[in-house]
UniProtKB/TrEMBL annotation, chains A, B:
Keyword Transmembrane helix set for record: yes
Pfam family, one: Nuc_sug_transp
Source organism: Gossypium tomentosum
Keyword set, alphabetical order: Membrane, Transmembrane, Transmembrane helix
GO CC field: Golgi membrane
Annotated transmembrane regions: 163-180, 192-216, 228-248, 260-282, 289-309, 315-332
Gene Ontology MF term list: pyrimidine nucleotide-sugar transmembrane transporter activity
Location of the protein in the cell: Membrane
Membrane topology: Multi-pass membrane protein
Protein name as it appears in the record: CMP-sialic acid transporter 4
Family, per entry: Belongs to the nucleotide-sugar transporter family. CMP-Sialate:CMP antiporter (TC 2.A.7.12) subfamily.
Principal subcellular localization: membrane
Length: 338, 338
């Protein structure tokens, strides 16, 4: 077991060295394959996330969820778990059970932590609405861009250049600008309790993301499907507990699938696939790429809405989109100078 | 005369070389003095410009100018001209009339060009209001940030790094964001003629600024007060023509100084001093510094208004201010990498 850890460390170290030296020599085929994989998972995440917001809105009827949201979350985790297991079964069939596609107990004990953090964050969501209205909450959620950057630096000890930090501040400012509307200024009247809760939620969400990356990256030789399986099984467990606490009566009286529609099914499918894409991005890229990917997805959602629903884009949206685009450019320009 | 030109070229070349090598060795006292002069004129411009907007608003009564604006412009040019001449007289007294503090006819013939460009731009201002409302015009005016950058690159052939270009786009987006209000979206409905006029006006204004810098920098050994005298004398002349065309009747019937108040006098004083500060920035820094300086002044004006008049700052203002601040940082960070 000690040997495997050393092997993992070595592979990880090699990856880092290979990655940082790509700008100095010709990119070899292995690096190209890695870069391609990184690009594919990032694009998949962006594409899936951009349709997510619309499906959530569509799944409501007259502005209300007719299904229990927690049952949908539970099904998302179950579906992801099933997909990981199916992928794993295929691998076991072809390669047999090896060190790379199985796991040990000491490895598993940390997997509940991200699921638990997300659960606490989701519970806080029910309390913050007492202090902030919905558009205000939408704006405050962008604080997790900053918290992710800070925790990424502290926990994963990966450095961002000064230009990249500037880009990250711009990403946050640009996302908020793009979402501005006539009622946005209300958020400035948020009481101190609301701000504290918003910051705590941003930290929880950032910490969960960064911690997941730490778990996944700690053993780079481990197959992603094994890692996902454990992440999702605990996601299922915690959501099951949440259903019992919050929706037990509703589920008992109206049934588990009450209020479900085709849109709900599509939404669950989309969430499950984008959840897997997030894990892939954590494995083959990092949290910073994830944050950029979901921010760009937010802009794409708005642009698609113009064509599908005839929404008008505001001047604030254009300005936010320009700032986000410059931020994306600066993030990669800042990387080259290292 | 050929000799003087060569001397000028050499001094200019030396300045450029000295400036770009400052990061490589200890900054000598001469460089320090230059840097100090640059800082002082930049701060003076920022300070004077930030009080300018308020004085213009104060000089109105019930939202209207009671004085003819062109007579005020004429007095601003006259005051600047008088101040330059006074400074020049002092220099002539102490140093005598030398090559550095006098001028030749072939040099003077280009000085009317900036004044003419500004006049055309100011005349266009009367026509653009048919297509754009006042807040929209305020927003479109920020286009001259971009036009100044582009013309600075093309005419003065001075390079900006890619990071500095990104910073410049951010400066424009940030300034517009900070000025957003509930009626800003109207600007998106501006008809094509309005956009064309706004772009032409931005180009005229950018061209006038860059051309002034080119004139002033062409002969770095020439005393700034000589250069200013010629710039301002043509400003006086063109404004006198404008008074004759537009306000002849009003001036004849009500008198030249009709509707003037203490505030109008303060405003003229402020405009004259900031006009001189602009020339100084062109001489000792450049148009890019001028644009940054006036953008930061715009933010300061808004912040001062909060304390003086109890205005509320909007979320858009904060976001714009963050983007402008990051842009200022990136402009200097981008410089260091050259």
């Amino acid at each position: 077991m000690e040997n495997r850890k050393i092997k993992d460390e070595l592979i990880y170290f090699n990856n880092v060295v290979n990655f940082s030296s790509t700008s100095l020599r010709n990119v070899p085929t292995r690096e190209q394959a890695k870069w391609q994989r990184k690009t594919v998972v990032t694009l998949a995440l962006t594409f899936l996330t951009s349709s997510q917001a619309k499906l959530i809105v569509w799944s409501k009827r007259a502005g209300k969820y007719e299904y229990s949201v927690t049952t949908a979350n539970f099904l998302v985790e179950t579906l992801k778990c099933a997909l990981s297991l199916a992928a794993l079964a295929r691998i076991w069939n072809s390669e047999g059970v090896t060190e790379a596609n199985s796991t040990t107990l000491d490895e598993v004990i940390v997997y509940p932590i991200p699921a638990l953090l997300y659960l606490v964050k989701n519970l806080l969501q029910y309390y913050i609405v007492a202090y902030v209205d919905a558009p205000g909450y939408q704006i405050l959620k962008n604080l997790n861009i900053i918290s992710t950057g800070v925790l990424y630096r502290i926990i994963l000890k990966r450095k961002l250049s000064e230009i990249q930090w500037a880009a990250f501040i711009l990403l946050c400012a640009g996302c908020i600008t793009a979402q501005l509307n006539s009622r946005s200024d209300h958020v400035l009247q948020t009481p101190l309790q609301g701000w504290i809760m918003a910051i705590v939620m941003a930290l929880l969400s950032g910490f969960a993301g960064v911690y997941t990356e730490a778990i996944i990256k700690k053993r780079p030789s481990r197959n992603i499907n094994v890692q996902n399986f454990w992440l999702y099984i605990f996601g299922m467990a915690f959501n099951a507990v949440a259903i019992l606490i919050q929706y037990f009566d509703a589920v008992m009286n109206k049934g588990f699938f009450h209020g479900y529609s085709i849109i709900t099914t599509l939404m669950i499918l989309n969430h499950a696939l984008s959840g897997i894409a997030v894990s892939m991005v954590m494995k083959y890229a990092d949290n910073i790429v994830k944050v950029y990917s979901t921010s760009v997805a937010m802009l794409l959602t708005a642009i698609v809405s113009v064509f599908l629903f005839g929404f008008n884009l505001t001047l604030a949206f254009f300005l936010g989109a320009i700032v986000v685009s410059v931020s994306v450019y600066l993030h990669s320009a800042g990387k080259l100078q290292r």
